[in-house]
Amino acid sequence: MAGRTDIFDIGRLNLHSGEARRLQLEVGFDPLDLGRQQYSVSGGRLPVTLDVSHTTTGWSLRLRYKASLEGPCMRCLDLAERVIEIDAREVDQPGGVEDLSSPYVEGQDLNLRDWARDALMLDISGQVLCEDECAGLCAICGENLNDHPHEHEHRADPRWARLSELKLK
After folding, report:
1. How do the domains of the chain map onto residue ranges?
2. Whole-angstrom distance, CA of residue 104 vs CA of residue 92
3. What Å distances lie between residue 85 and 52, 66, 69, CA to CA?
């Protein structure tokens, strides 16, 4: 069974330089806000695989998991579910350049919850849709075009009709 953790003490692994360890953990997820819509991760907690390698002066980390994201379709607002596979890496080398300093590692503590959430947010490519070919909502009447495909006659607003008589040279 996976251990439940949001902050993981990587120092307690007692790894020496060049040693590595693979851990099966469980991380909590709060709902995500995308485009003023709320999306939740099924179950609120997910099993994750964390690979920890001790380098000469720091850590090399890899996080992998599969998340099922649920919420309104970004085109038609029906319920949508999208499965996203995450494979994220971080390096933390204290005293190195800024690119080698992980924002998720503070001392020996790895903020696994924030890293997992940020990796999911960065990996959401495209849109969360009910189906790949979702037609969305009609721009005129708001009807769901997946359920009732139709077209409207696009008439000019009668208040602008006189402009059609205008002759430009």
Report:
1. 3-135
2. 9
3. 19, 4, 11
Using CA atoms, how far apart are residues 28 and 65, in angstroms rounded to an integer? 12
| C-alpha–C-alpha distance, residues 125 and 54, integer Å | 31
32, 39 Cβ separation under 8 angstroms: yes
Question: Using an 8 Å Cβ cutoff, are 117 and 30 in contact?
Answer: yes
Question: Structure pTM?
Answer: 0.78
Q: What is the mean pLDDT of residues 128-157?
A: 84
Look at residue 156 and tell me whether its pLDDT is greater than 80.
no
Q: CA 49 to CA 64: how far, in whole Å?
A: 5
Structure-block tokens of residue 10: 């990587």
Report the run of H or E that residue 45 belongs to, with start and end. Answer: strand 45-54
Say if residues 82 and 103 touch (Cβ distance below 8 Å).
no
